[in-house]
Amino acid sequence: MSFSAPIESLTQAVGNTPLVRLRSLEPPGVEIHAKLEWFNPGGSVKDRAALSILQKALPTLRGRTLLDSTSGNTGIAYAWIGAALGVPVALVMPGNVSEARKRIARHFGAEILFSDALEQSDGAIRLARKLAADEPEKWFYADQYSNDANPRAHELGTAQEIWTQTGGRVTHAVFGIGTGGTIMGTGRGLKAHRREIQVVAVEPAEALHGLEGLKHMPSSIVPRIYKESELDRKLSIATDEGWDMAERLIRDEGLLAGHSAGAAAAGALQVARELSERGQGGIVVTLFPDRADRYLPPS
Ligand SMILES: Cc1ncc(COP(=O)(O)O)c(C=O)c1O
User: Fold this and answer.
1) Can you give the pLDDT at residue 262?
2) Higher model confidence: residue 120 or residue 269?
3) pLDDT at position 61, please?
4) How many CA atoms lie within 13 A of 283 on its CB side?
5) Are 142 and 53 a contacting pair, CB within 8 Å?
6) Mean pLDDT estimate for the chain
7) Catalytic site residue 260?
8) Mean pLDDT to the nearest integer, 249-262
9) Is there an atom of ligand 1 within 6 Å of 213 CB?
10) What's residue 170's pLDDT?
11) Is the CB of 180 under 6 A from ligand 1?
12) 121, containing H or E segment
């Protein structure tokens, strides 16, 4: 979106985020670029999925409250977009989610329900499923993990933006996996332009990790929208590596990248180094889901 004219609703400002080159990371002969998703109005990539899901739900809501499980960014996205579109929103969050997350979602008028903290995001999924099954006339279960509107937002949006912003030169796309919406949708959209583009997933190396927003698939409920067979490769990134890279991006690039962004950049660097060592050129594109200030402790 260009802001040279007034817009009718803030929802029109979702997407069209900048793609920035990360020169300080680049090995010889390979470019690395990152899409800065904190430029979305709600501060994260999840504005894209939430807007797409809410727009698809609108004709079938019939007065029901939109319900979904989320530990963070999706909740904030649903909350502000629900307020903008006049849709009531309820969020199931693990009991230990940060005070700041709860406060932001509540400010926008979202109702928050808590699941067992020990069961993490899978516990929130199970509780949301139960609530929706018990009272289907009250809740519209949006289910970001199964809803095709989630990857579609990226297929129609993120992928086309990357294609245009790189002038069709992108060779590798490296993204973290949470619901899988970003990687599945963007991967499909890019491969429709050129099948040879390599789509590489970044997954936390550990089951219990500190890369908020990312899922360790072998130990999780695997989202229905996530289809590993469509990926070319999966990389394991340790929490420390993601955190160190986030620090490096702040220091060397002036980018206040969050931890999952750090992990995505670490994956992009690994791919770029391998290409460079083989004497191959390449244009590696990654995506930074949100900014580090989402994770600063309250002072
Ligand atoms: C910080 C962060 N990183 C990465 C992701 C993963 O994105 P996706 O759900 O599209 O796979 C999310 C999603 O919630 C997130 O909040």
Assistant:
1) 98
2) 269
3) 95
4) 14
5) yes
6) 96
7) yes
8) 97
9) yes
10) 99
11) yes
12) helix 120-134
**At 130, which helix (H) or strand (E)?**
helix 120-134
* Rounded distance from Cα 183 to ligand 1 centre (Å): 10
Question: Which amino acid is present at 180?
Answer: G
Q: Can 46 be counted among the known catalytic residues?
A: yes
Residue 38 CA: distances (Å) to CA of 3, 14, 126, 189, 234? 17, 10, 29, 21, 24
Quote the CA–CA distance of 79 and 83 in Å, as a whole number.
6
Query: How far is the CA of 104 from the CAs of 45, 127, 258, in angstroms?
Result: 17, 22, 18
Catalytic site residue from 46, 71, 115, 215: 46
- Give the Cα separation of 98 and 75 in Å (integer): 12
Q: Is the pLDDT of residue 220 over 70?
A: yes
pLDDT of residue 1: 61
| Ligand 1 and 76: CB distance under 6 A | no
Left (φ > 0), alpha (ψ -120 to 50) or beta: where does 287 sit? beta
